[in-house]
Amino acid sequence: MVIIMLGAPGTGKGTVSGMLSDKLNIPQVSTGDIFRKHISEQTELGKLANSYISQGKLVPDDVTINLVKDRLQQDDVQEGVILDGFPRTVKQAEALDNMLNNLNRKVSLTVNLTTPEKELIERVVNRRICPKCKTVYNLILNPPHNENICDNCGNELVKREDDNESTFKGRLNTYIQETSPLVNYYENQEKLFSAVVSQSINKMGKDVTQDVLEYIKKKHIT
Ligand code: ADP
Ligand code: ZN
């Protein structure tokens, strides 16, 4: 099973991916997390990625595609994988189709998350993440029990450097221009499942995760 998560920054891709990963027992691969790890380790890739990420731009396609190509060869993802944050351009989506084709696999489902824009910014500036176990918190909607400490592993929480208002606007624009065409790309392949994540309708990541799981079951997606 290959599941793709699509959605603007702050829609909850990471949160839903994490829950789907637990329920379906397949790994979550987040290109954002991989880049952040390289940035914290100050590798060459990290330095390059940071020069784009800090500006709210996408890391170049060739770099990102090669990274995912390598990752998809590894043993742990052969039975299934949740791709959180890849593909993000039509070029990446075409490259993914090729890679999977060569491995005799295909995209099973694309989960497209949408959230009203005014909620997105609130979520992004109040987001805190655990750098160790990757659990995502929100200081207002989903705060940790002890201030700034991960409930799950006890590590100190951090705020992502790109989770500020000005970088967010750039990221949202990048999403609209470069990533949103993928909604049609996967709709045309009849692989799209869209869901709204919004407090205003009392539908949060865990509810959407449930809907996705039911859809997978009903449609016998493998
Ligand atoms: P979000 O969806 O909240 O912006 P991510 O953690 O998915 O967060 O991504 C953070 C940043 O990493 C992006 O703004 C982008 O610069 C870079 N990035 C992640 N995935 C990709 C990708 N597939 N292609 C290019 N850049 C990427
Ligand atoms: Zn943790």
Q: Could you tell me the strand content as a percent range?
A: 5-15%
Can you list the strand order of the major beta sheet? 2-3-1-4-7
Question: Based on DSSP secondary structure assignment, what is the total number of beta strands?
Answer: 7
Q: List bound small molecules.
A: adenosine-5'-diphosphate, zinc ion
- Give the CA-CA distance, first to last residue: 5 Å
Outline type: globular
Q: Using only CA atoms, what is the Rg?
A: 17 Å
Broad structural category: alpha/beta
Question: Would you mind describing this structure in some detail?
Answer:
The protein has 222 residues and is α/β, with parallel strands linked by helices. The chain has a single domain (2-116, 179-219), classed as Rossmann fold. The chain has helices at 13-24, 31-40, 44-53, 61-71, 90-102, 117-125, 165-179, 181-188, 205-218, and strands spanning 2-7, 28-30, 81-84, 109-114, 127-129, 136-138, 192-196. It has a five-stranded parallel beta sheet with strand order 2-3-1-4-7, with helices on both faces. A two-stranded antiparallel sheet has the order 5-6. Helix 2 (31-40) crosses helix 3 (44-53) and helix 4 (61-71) packs parallel to helix 5. The radius of gyration is 17 Å and the shape is globular. Bound molecules: adenosine-5'-diphosphate and zinc ion. Adenosine-5'-diphosphate is lined by residues 9-10, 13, 31-32, 35, 52-53, 57-59, 64, 85-86, 88, 92, 171. Residues 9-10, 13, 31-32, 35, 52-53, 57-59, 64, 85-86, 88, 92, 171 line the site of adenosine-5'-diphosphate.
